[in-house]
From TrEMBL:
Gene3D superfamilies: P-loop containing nucleotide triphosphate hydrolases (3.40.50.300). Pfam families: ABC_tran. Residues 1-223 form the ABC transporter domain. One of its GO terms (molecular function) is ATP hydrolysis activity. InterPro entries: AAA+_ATPase (IPR003593), ABC_transporter-like_ATP-bd (IPR003439), ABC_Transporter_VariousFunc (IPR051782), P-loop_NTPase (IPR027417). The keyword Nucleotide-binding applies. Keywords: ATP-binding, Nucleotide-binding, Transport. This is ABC transporter ATP-binding protein. It comes from Oceanobacillus iheyensis (strain DSM 14371 / CIP 107618 / JCM 11309 / KCTC 3954 / HTE831).
Length: 240
């Protein structure tokens, strides 16, 4: 569904932070892109969606496949209502009214945004803006979802509904790339993991492979494996 090969990437040619990041996301699978703050997760995502200045590599997405991106910080137009955002997205993807309007109304109801359709997002809370982006993305039924820290700012009900949507889209055959610091959720939702550290890929595989890589038992959590792997990496780094 999507293949990612990043030889080098960064915000400037003189500052290439990422190196040798390569992974793929098959249809119907969720990949968790994990790492501490500054590991390179956001830079990897921006490389995939083509908004990074300095990039050397290849991103392969099958022709005709729709990609939806939900950033960590919600970005919406101040002078368009929520409904105008939805109509703009539908127009961009050539969706007929009979297809997108019922789906939009269903999602608005699910995320408790019914009655806010004709309001301007500039007056929304961060959580409402985040839910608006979720509605926009899932309304188009994308083939690939790239979601950056999806649970930040969401209330428990919205979090549960988002998890249900992600599972439904995965069953439909969508490929999902998700970054999150909520590792217990990542453990439940993701099929495989890509762990980054200081712009490099430390690990790629499923939880059992990670447990084996870190010499842990099969009941060791993703959080503990993640900690052990980073601790090992830091211990092996050369001292200046």
């Amino acid at each position: 569904m999507i293949e990612v090969k990043i030889n080098h990437a960064g915000y400037h040619l003189e500052q290439l932070y990422l190196s040798d990041i390569h992974f793929s996301i098959p249809p119907g699978e969720t990949v968790g892109l994990l790492g501490a703050n500054g590991a390179g997760k956001s830079t990897t995502i921006k490389s995939i969606i083509g908004t990074i200045e300095a990039f050397d590599g290849e991103i392969h997405i099958k022709d005709g496949h729709r990609l939806a991106y939900i950033p960590e910080e919600p970005i919406l137009y101040d002078h368009l209502t929520l409904w105008e955002h939805l109509r703009l997205a539908a127009t961009s993807y050539d969706l007929p009214d009979e297809q997108w309007i019922p789906k939009a109304e269903e999602l608005l109801k699910l995320f408790l945004l019914t009655g806010k359709e004709h309001h301007f997002p500039v007056h929304f809370s961060k959580g409402m803006k985040q839910k608006s982006l979720i509605v926009l993305s899932f309304m188009i039924k994308a083939d690939i979802y790239i979601i950056d820290e999806p649970f930040i700012g969401l209330d428990p009900i919205a979090t549960k509904n988002l998890i249900t949507l992600l599972e439904q889209e995965k069953q439909r055959g969508a490929a999902i790339l998700m970054t999150t610091h909520v590792l217990d959720s990542a453990e439940k939702l993701c099929d495989t993991f890509v762990l980054l550290h200081e712009g490099r890929m430390l690990f790629k595989g499923n939880l059992i492979e990670l447990q084996q890589r870190t010499n842990q038992t099969l009941d060791t959590s993703l959080l503990d494996c993640f900690y052990y792997l980073l601790e090992e990496e830091v211990a092996n780094e050369p001292r200046l």
